[in-house]
Amino acid sequence: MNASMPHIPPIAGLSLDDEGPVFDKPWQAQAFSLLLHLHQTGLFPWKDWVQVFSDEIKASPAQPGESVNDTYYRQWIAAMERMVTTLGLAGMEDITQRSEEWQQAYLNTPHGQPVTLLNASCPPAHGNGHEHLPRHEPVAISRATS
User: Fold this and answer.
1) So where are the chain's domains?
2) What is the C-alpha separation between 14 and 43, in angstroms, rounded?
3) Cβ(76)–Cβ(31) under 8 Å?
4) Side-chain half-sphere exposure of 122, counting CA atoms within 13 A
5) Which positions ≥6 away from 62 have C-beta within 8 Å?
6) Under a CB-based contact definition with an 8 Å cutoff, are residues 83 and 49 in contact?
7) Is the distance from CB of 115 to CB of 99 less than 8 angstroms?
8) Rounded CA gap, 42 and 63, in Å?
9) pLDDT, tens only, 21-69
10) Cβ 108 vs Cβ 120: under 8 Å
11) How many whole angstroms from its chain centre is CA 34?
12) What is the pTM of this model?
């Protein structure tokens, strides 16, 4: 593990390799990287993050049918949102608005295409030379097997 990175204890059910956490999805690595960057720029001591994250884990246990990894990152994001608002970097209104924009972008993105915020304002059928098939429910993704 990198010496400049705080020690992250193993969590049952989460994958680790010699370098540290292994992420199932790119956004998980991005969330981790963002939080680590905020810490490394001196905005908060790591012990403060540990406390906020621990409090969130206690307050919001796994939901029925939720995987260990999904629980962990749901808790991680909620704790990170709390850190960001406590530090005054963004308000909950800003976070809520951006979350809604990402949700709309997901709903407006054609199946199989990457979700980008540009799609937040691009309605499913808008006559710009291409049509979207709207999504109304999240798409389940399963790992490919060989």
Assistant:
1) 1-90, 92-146
2) 27
3) yes
4) 18
5) 68, 71
6) yes
7) no
8) 34
9) 677 777 788 888 899 999 999 999 999 999 999 999 999 999 999 988 8
10) yes
11) 10
12) 0.65
Angular region, 11: left φ>0, alpha ψ -120 to 50, beta rest? beta
CA distance 139 to 107: 10
Q: Give the position of tokens 């992420």.
A: 23
Q: What is the pLDDT of residues 84-123, one digit of tens each?
A: 999 999 999 999 998 899 888 888 888 888 888 888 887 6
User: 19: which DSSP letter?
Assistant: T
Residue type, 66: E
Structure tokens at 52: 């906020």
Gap between the Cα atoms of 71 and 79, Å rounded: 12
Under DSSP, is residue 105 helix (H, G, I), strand (E, B) or coil? helix
